[in-house]
Amino acid sequence: MSVNATSFSSPLANAKYAASGIPAQLEPVMEAISQMGIWTVALTILAVAVVYDQFSYIWQKGSIVGPAWKAPFIGPFLQSMDPKFEEYYAKWTSGPLSCVSVFHKFVVIASTRDMARKIFNAPAFVKPCVVDVAPKLLGADNWVFLDGKAHVDFRKGLNGLFTRRALECYLPGQEEVYKTYFKRFLQITKDAGGKPVPFMPEMRELMCAVSCRTFVGYYISDEAVKKIADDYYLITAALELVNFPIIIPFTKTWYGKKAADMVLAEFSKCAAKSKVRMAAGGEVTCIMDGWVKQILESKKWREAEEKGIKVEGTKPSPLLRDFTDYEIAQTVFTFLFASQDATSSAATWLFQIMAQRPDVLDRVREENYKTRNGDIHAPVTMDQLESMTYTRAVVKELLRYRPPVLMVPYMAKKAFPITENYTVPKGAMVIPTTYMALRDPEVYTNPDEFDPERYYSGDAEVKGAKNFLVFGVGPHYCLGQHYAQLNLALFVGKASLLMDWKHHPTPISEEIKVFATIFPKDDCPLTFEERKW
Ligand code: HEM
């Protein structure tokens, strides 16, 4: 072949393969390749890659349910950009284990309670697998990405921040935020001339504000809280299952990263202030204070031990190392990251469902009124909050009925023999589903009905002990689960005393929109009025 025969000639054309030590048996192959044009080579490579991609999918799929073939390379990528609850549901009902493959990612979905529990409780085989962009937002060295012993040890140091005693310190700050935002809810209805307004964005902002107060107390200004609450939407929007590997300016991930950096910068400033206040013997009023206090006490203990001095009091357990302001901010940011979407989802459904069920709302109101001894503005103590068993049953049933987190992605660290017949391949994503266990008719009578009675006077607590996967189980179960439930109880109880509200249903009010967690598709149109007693 002449070198000038065509400008598309293969770069291998005329190559002296024989002279470069290629075995004689391969000579015909090399000869054939050298005769090909560049397009032929490219198309052949593409065809081989398509066949490999297809075979690899079919091989990994093995005996479980899934499409017979995948769209070359991308699989259902476009669907995953706009996830639909109905499509997830179809997947869960297709079999206990089902699969899809998106780009290079093979994904196994476990739908039954027992399969889901098996994954949650298999730390030797799996580790949590957050979406691609999460390490870029939270920092790759963040504790949430630790695994095994390192994770267990770090988590031990955080447990003290969520004890009953600790949670009680955060209550006054939470009540104050609720009071402020309830006034705003009333104003929104007034400003709209009494017309319904979708309240999902408001619920998100309120939950972000209450989280900031709980996590970093009064070290943060109201303006900064407002900015974080406004911008947090950008962080959620960046959390797609698959993102482009680098952050390109003006894309969702770019805006998400900017918002995350802003939160980290604000929280770092709070950490510096908390260190000063705690060192001066200040009271703990937020989660950050609690952790900083533990860090300072650990430091004091270690220094005294080094000098051989005996220290009064009990040894901090576990003894924490020193953390920089930025590291403290990073850890506290994980709480916001973990709570914001889930709590906003629960808050939105709670307001929608309470308006639809005045019988339930009346009982919540009555319980809260009695507990506060008839003073609708009285703050509650932890004892009082815990004593409101009906309000807490409402929250628990809400979380069962509309579980904010439908699925929790894990990654197989090694081949994981999940059943006798099927082994999840190493590197695959493996996703336990919470939804099906929470709608199991054998455990919950009429599972598609919202019925707080099942947790108040019924046996759902005991009968459904293994089914209540709302907060996960195993070594990564939700660190904030008690706080989250008590906070929602405080929220709806206080709202019931100060306001009346109406839900204005639309044809899509009961349909589920998936936006990291779940929301009513119409974003929950509500109107509020001050409650007259
Ligand atoms: C209704 C609200 C909430 C729901 C439904 C929820 C649900 C979950 C779920 C399903 C997991 C994964 C569990 C697993 O892999 O086994 C999780 C993890 C976690 N949650 Fe929550 N959560 C909520 C609120 C909160 C709050 C308020 C906080 C913090 C204050 C929080 C902090 C965390 C943390 C730190 C983790 C990771 C724990 C670890 O990896 O060790 N969550 N949550």
TrEMBL record:
Keyword Oxidoreductase found: yes
E.C. number: 1.14.19.41
Binding site for heme: 478
EC category: oxidoreductase
Short name of one Pfam family: p450
Catalysis: reaction(s): 5-dehydroepisterol + NADPH + O2 + H(+) = ergosta-5,7,22,24(28)-tetraen-3beta-ol + NADP(+) + 2 H2O
Record keywords: Heme, Iron, Metal-binding, Monooxygenase, Oxidoreductase
CDD domains linked: CYP61_CYP710
Gene Ontology MF: a single term: monooxygenase activity
Needed co-factor(s): heme
Keyword field contains Kinase: no
UniProt record, GO biological process: sterol metabolic process
Similarity comment text for this entry: Belongs to the cytochrome P450 family.
Name listed for the protein in its UniProt record: sterol 22-desaturase
